[in-house]
Amino acid sequence: MSDTRKDPCKPNACRIQACLTKNHYQEDKCLDVLEAMRQCCLKWHKESLCCSGIDLEKTYLPDASKEKNPIGKSKK
Fold first, then answer.
1. Which residues form the domain of 20?
2. What is the Cα–Cα distance from 73 to 62, expressed in whole angstroms?
3. How crowded is the C-beta side of 74, counted as CA atoms within 13 Å?
4. Residue 52 burial (CB < 10 Å; 0-12/13-18/19+)?
5. Where are the beta strands (DSSP E) in 1-73?
6. 67 — phi, psi (to 5°)?
7. Cα separation of 60 and 46, whole Å?
8. Is the pLDDT confidence value at 11 over 70?
């Protein structure tokens, strides 16, 4: 990444820090912000230095995994 380009996920990293500080570092209060960071990193992980510690496989929103495979619905 060029030094003149801004890190595309840095605003999300800043939102995480602000949310965690506001909520006394209770991660469960910032799940939507953490998921937004993960989504950014899924797209920009090769260019963003802020993504170095993000687990791209971990979903932060509990309902996100259910949406992909709704319970009780089968394909016919």
1. 9-51
2. 19
3. 2
4. exposed
5. none
6. -65, -35
7. 21
8. yes
- The number of domains in the chain is 1
pLDDT (tens digit per residue) in 19-76: 999 999 999 999 999 999 999 999 999 999 999 989 999 999 887 554 444 444 444 4
- Percentages of the chain per state (helix, strand, coil), in multiples of 5: 50, 0, 50
Specify the pTM.
0.74
Structural contact between residues 1 and 49, judged by C-beta atoms closer than 8 angstroms? yes
Is residue 3 in some structural domain?
A: no
pLDDT at 63: 72
Residue 37 lies in a domain: yes
On whether residue 45 sits in a domain, the answer given is yes
* Cα 56 from Cα 10, distance rounded (Å): 16
Indicate whether 67 belongs to any domain.
no
